[in-house]
Amino acid sequence: MTTVIDGDAVAKDLRDELAARVETLKESGVQPGLATVLMSEDPASETYVSMKQRDCEELGIESIHVEIDPEKPAEGLYGVIDDLNADPNVNGILVQLPVPDHVDKREVLRRIDPAKDVDGFHPENVGRLVAGNPRFKPCTPHGVEYLLDDAGVELDGADAVIVGRSDIVGKPMAHLLLQSDATVTVAHSHTDDLAAKTRDADVVVAAAGVPELVDGSMLTEGTAVVDVGVNRVDADNEKGYELVGDVEYESAKEKADVITPVPGGVGPMTRAMLLYNTVKAASSQEDVPVDLP
Ligand SMILES: Nc1nc2c(c(=O)[nH]1)N[C@@H](CN(C=O)c1ccc(C(=O)N[C@@H](CCC(=O)O)C(=O)O)cc1)CN2
């Protein structure tokens, strides 16, 4: 019997736990604040940012939102980051990715104060993660780790294959799985015979951004399958699109022991982990300890 992980439910339970920590902070006079910065007209990015703002409101976290015209020079974004770094009401800063091509993404990530870098993408925070001493775990890999743990998936000694080597998911995911004593393979677009690798895996994390790249024929019975992809594909419905993962769900479910759906799998956990990191940032900046789950 395949277990379908309910990411919405796990994320809700985590948000409830975080709400109690926000209360603790407020009782100590600390109002946590998260700044989201959007320099894009990409509809998916707009959706994610507004969901993040709504999540903050529900938890009692102050949400500060800045929108920058994507046609404007990069300096405008750099200036906004400098201002948010200096703002004592802002504990966490998130610049929604991707940024326009004329903006130097590395400069954006480097410019955010590492203590407010709730995405965990600043080079200092990347270094800390790789060294096994993370300040902020990047939200999506952290969400995947949490879901696997919640579902009781044993990582110690497991063969894990990550499909995709992005800075946001694939690379940090590899380090988190290594730190859980899994044997990790990171496959990517140049990998020869991907199916041979995924068929040998106990855990597959699909994060390539390619709709339905991994199907049931590429899996062995009993695999834990985590689908990080959230691809919008054209559909004849009101929205004009539907969300499809990087895993071909129906055939993969036939083989998987546990599997995450899209939507309602990893996506809600990505957002919950942003709240987690924001609570952690506020707690450490204001020196009010809270016990995080
Ligand atoms: N600064 C960042 N930018 C981006 C990140 C990130 O972690 N930090 N990750 C991705 C996308 N992402 C976060 O912004 C994200 C993806 C998916 C979801 C989500 O809730 N998905 C829902 C469906 C939502 C919908 O209806 O479209 C689900 O899967 O159930 C949230 C955040 C890129 N950029």
From TrEMBL:
Pathway where this protein functions: One-carbon metabolism; tetrahydrofolate interconversion
Gene3D superfamilies, alphabetized: Leucine Dehydrogenase, chain A, domain 1, NAD(P)-binding Rossmann-like Domain
Reaction(s) the record says it catalyses: (6R)-5,10-methylene-5,6,7,8-tetrahydrofolate + NADP(+) = (6R)-5,10-methenyltetrahydrofolate + NADPH; (6R)-5,10-methenyltetrahydrofolate + H2O = (6R)-10-formyltetrahydrofolate + H(+)
Domain Tetrahydrofolate dehydrogenase/cyclohydrolase NAD(P)-binding intervals: 138-285
InterPro entries: Aminoacid_DH-like_N_sf (IPR046346), NAD(P)-bd_dom_sf (IPR036291), THF_DH/CycHdrlase (IPR000672), THF_DH/CycHdrlase_cat_dom (IPR020630), THF_DH/CycHdrlase_NAD-bd_dom (IPR020631)
GO molecular function: methenyltetrahydrofolate cyclohydrolase activity; methylenetetrahydrofolate dehydrogenase (NADP+) activity
Start and end residues of each Tetrahydrofolate dehydrogenase/cyclohydrolase catalytic domain: 5-119
Gene Ontology biological process terms from the UniProt entry: L-histidine biosynthetic process; methionine biosynthetic process; purine nucleotide biosynthetic process; tetrahydrofolate interconversion
Keywords: Amino-acid biosynthesis, Histidine biosynthesis, Hydrolase, Methionine biosynthesis, Multifunctional enzyme, NADP, One-carbon metabolism, Oxidoreductase, Purine biosynthesis
EC number: 1.5.1.5, 3.5.4.9
Pfam families per record: THF_DHG_CYH, THF_DHG_CYH_C
Residues that hold NADP(+) according to the record: G164, R165, S166, V230
The protein's role, per its UniProt record: Catalyzes the oxidation of 5,10-methylenetetrahydrofolate to 5,10-methenyltetrahydrofolate and then the hydrolysis of 5,10-methenyltetrahydrofolate to 10-formyltetrahydrofolate.
HAMAP family: THF_DHG_CYH
Complex and partners: Homodimer.
Name of the featured protein: Bifunctional protein FolD
Organism: Halospeciosus flavus
